[in-house]
Specification:
By secondary structure, this protein is an alpha/beta fold. 38% of the residues lie in helices and 16% in strands. The protein has a 7-stranded parallel sheet, sandwiched between helices. Helix 1 (20-32) packs across helix 13 (348-362) and helix 6 (201-211) crosses helix 11 (315-327). The chain is globular, with a radius of gyration of 21 Å. It starts with a strand and ends with a helix.
């Protein structure tokens, strides 16, 4: 159809081991391309390598261009293609976008930790992130973000007008339950997410050691790539606390392996002091795992009354909460009873619909 909208998308986060932003974009694209009115639009997906996505034929075009996947790729290959291709709008799902493009732009800024806490980033990386994100936010018709907390951060730190910021929380996928009896819970404490300094993994290791000193069968699984700066040697921290043999570090695991961990864990711990949202504690809740989280404004906003909150840096309090849920599983019942009401707030279908409505609103007629 001649009036079919063409929406460009920076799709590089779908390549390789997809983490937070890649999962976010994948969930949106799957829903956008399966809508009954999918004939009304084409998504032009730009990436430096072939995309491992299976989408309905006729709903998208894949543009594989250039090499690399960092800022140079974004500001050369992607920028040139977006300028030359006939697009009605462009969607950048991960903080930054090509500069100097004339079509309407929407960018998702999930958090601004690199602005609020520059000490967590290498000087050059922090400067790059701050400069490019400010430019993207300034140029965008719409800035998407995940929480009211992040809306306030973006408005105050990046000077974006409130009318251009739209809060659309991500969804929480339902567990892919398999037929048969559920797996038995184990004395397993679980953390899932990229490893950043703000997530205070040394505190978690110390609290786990303190909570399980007389529970030799208890285990801690830490799943995520170590992106800390200054670099933290978490294996050395585990050895220093005498629990090295009871902690498993996994940089990346499959969805099936992750589902198994959620299904077997008795406690989920996420002690972050700064997030734009924080999805994995909600995933834990969806599997019936009580989350222990750092007590911050965004955590209160997102998890409501379905999480155990501990003060940031309170190792003793965290240890007490971990121990309580390990030795007395019924203690988690009040949190888990409140979980369905909290989880109903977060729908990928709703997130996809609202995001697409906004993209179509800014698209050229």
């Amino acid at each position: 159809m001649t009036n079919r909208l063409r929406i460009g998308v920076d799709a590089r986060e779908l390549i390789g081991a997809t983490t937070g932003v890649g999962r976010y974009l994948g969930e949106l694209l799957r829903r956008w391309t399966m809508r009954p009115d999918s004939y009304r639009r084409t998504f032009v997906l730009y990436a430096p390598k072939p995309l491992p996505l299976s989408l309905p034929a006729g709903t998208f075009e894949a543009r594989i261009l250039g090499r690399g996947r960092g800022t140079l790729w974004e500001q050369t290959y992607l920028r040139r293609a977006v300028r030359e291709d006939p697009l009605d709008a462009f969607f950048a799902p991960a903080y930054t976008a090509p500069l100097g493009v004339k079509i309407p732009l929407a960018v998702t800024i999930h958090d601004i930790s690199f602005v609020a806490h520059p000490e967590w980033f290498r000087a050059r990386e922090g400067f790059r992130r701050r400069w490019l994100t400010r430019r993207a936010a300034s140029n965008a018709r719409i800035v998407f973000t995940d929480s009211e907390f992040s809306r306030n951060e973006i408005e105050n730190h990046l000077s974006v007008e409130p009318s251009r910021i739209e809060v659309i929380p991500p969804g929480v996928a339902s567990p892919a339950r398999k037929p048969g009896a559920p797996l038995a819970r184990e004395p397993l404490v679980l953390f899932v997410g990229s490893l950043f300094n703000r997530r205070r993994l040394p505190d978690l290791i110390a609290a786990f050691a303190r909570a399980t000193a007389d529970l030799p069968h208890a285990r801690l699984a830490i799943v995520g790539d170590n992106r800390t700066w200054p670099k933290q040697n978490l294996a050395a921290a585990a050895a220093a606390h005498g629990v090295a043999k009871r902690i498993a570090f996994k940089r990346y695991i499959t969805d099936v392996e992750l589902e198994s961990l959620y299904a077997r864990a008795s406690v989920f711990a996420f002690l972050s002091e700064y997030e734009g949202f924080g999805l994995t504690p909600l995933e834990a809740l969806s599997y019936g795992v009580p989350p222990i989280v750092g007590d911050t404004p965004v955590a209160r906003e997102v998890y409501g009354n379905a999480a155990e909150f501990v003060p940031i840096g309170d190792v003793a309090g965290t240890a007490s909460a971990i121990r309580r849920f390990l030795i007395d599983p019924p203690a988690a019942a009040p949190l888990l009873l409140r979980a369905p009401a909290i989880l109903r707030r977060y729908s990928w279908d709703t997130a996809a619909d609202r995001t697409l409505e906004a993209l179509e609103r800014i698209a050229r007629p």
